[in-house]
Amino acid sequence: MTPTASLARIVATWLRGIPKAELHLHLEGTVSPETLVELSQRHDDERLTLAEAGRFYRYTEFHRLPVGI
Question: pLDDT per residue over 15-47, tens digit each?
Fold first, then answer.
C-alpha cells in the first residue's frame, strides 16, 4: 500500500469514528420572502402572497427559549 493510500485509509477510518451532527436549514432562513412567493407560484395549489410569506420571517417566540440554549 502506498503512503497516500495508507493515509487516505487512516483518515477515512477517523472520519467514520468521530461524532456527527445533523445540520439543516429551514427554507425561510435561506431565501427571501419574495423568492418563497415565486416558488409557491410555481409549485403550490394554494399560492402564498407576499404578506403570507412574510409571517414566516417574524420570530416572536425567542423569549420563551430556555436560558441554557
Answer: 999 998 877 777 667 889 999 899 999 999 999
Tell the residue number behind the cell numbers 417574524, with chain if given. Answer: 58
In-domain check, residue 6? no
Query: Which of 58, 52, 15 lies closest to 36, judged by CA?
Result: 52
Count of domains observed in the chain: 1
**Cell numbers representing residue 56 in the block:** 414566516
Q: 28: domain range?
A: 22-69
pTM of the complete model? 0.48
Count of other CB atoms within 10 angstroms of residue 2: 7
